[in-house]
Amino acid sequence: MGRKQGISAEQIFDLNQYAASPHFSAREKVALELADAITREPANVSDELFARLEQHFTYPELVELSAAAAFENFRARFNRVFNISSAGFTEGAVCALPAHRAP
Q: Residue ranges of the domains in the chain?
């Protein structure tokens, strides 16, 4: 899916180390940092991070980015509750998740 949207193979490969990757722009890196901050428990977007985000994005863009990251977190957590696995639409071209473990 990402490849169809213009994400390069190098970016996909470097996603887990985006901060040090030469394949992401400063704008992309700060957007990924926002996604990481929203994903952490508890979610925390520092004033410093928000100030850097404002250098690259308008307020409406930040709302959209935050909503997209929050929705993906919701979806991932919801799916884990019901042990919902991939439907196979990506032909295995995704990051593997650890096996579901009931509490």
A: 24-86
